[in-house]
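Exercise 7.
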Amino acid sequence: MKNVILSAFILFIFIVPAFAQPGNDVPLRSRIEELAKPIKGIVGVSILNPETGDTLSYNGSARLVLHSVMKFPIALTVMHLVDSGVFTLNQLMHIPKRDMVKDTYSPMRDKYPKGADLPLSEIIKYMVAESDNNACDFLLKTIGGAKTVQDYMLHIGIKGIAIRASEADMASMWELQYTNWCKPVEMTMLLDQFYRGKILAKPTTDTLYHIMTETTTGPNRLKGLLPAGTVVAHKTGTSPTNAEGLSPATNDVGIITLPNGKHLIISVFVCNSTDDEATREGVIAKIGKAAFDYYSR
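Solution. The predicted structure, written as tokens, is:
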């Protein structure tokens, strides 16, 4: 009997630590708090498992700077106009040379410096997958400005996202970037409605989702620590950094496909931070990995 008890005790001390390693027994919210606490700025996180309805929020109701994450609501608005028959995805649109603005991030301008006639689908891809600022402002102008996007967000019940300024507006005056903001919980809600086909028709939903999986920006953010080949449909946002080292926005939001076939909708914003870029991106990657591991179990 003593030998049996001794054997059981030895087995216990070898097995228990395997389940008590750091991170395995820590609730996800506590882990996110632990990761966010050292950041010199505001970290906002909103998570939803659409299959189970499980949610998590950390500063999820704070108003945080959007920057190029705004291109996702803009894309939704353009796709809604496609569904409504105003545009078609294969419709050629003339982008004049004057709209290929210099001194802004624009792979489209780099390829077509003298202007071009491009299908709407390609312009949307430039805006979303490559975060092209000229493509963004061209589409904003085409649909009637930021107010059209704002009105559409309100129409579909999204009240915690404000879009007031174009990319050119934000570049013209530092303060204007703060007029484009969102609450992380509202961005996650918008992503969820989009993913479940509650906003767009299936063809436009599928097209935009595919474009988001081809996003080239922010490889060290949500995707940074995930296993190779993980499907992530996402949109990043990045502000400039001023002379004092302040970065108003380092963001990544999207839909992650988990190994178990379920999904994770996640919005992570790092706002008004004086940390360097590697630190800002690193906390997004670590939060993404913590959520990925938690919901993959």
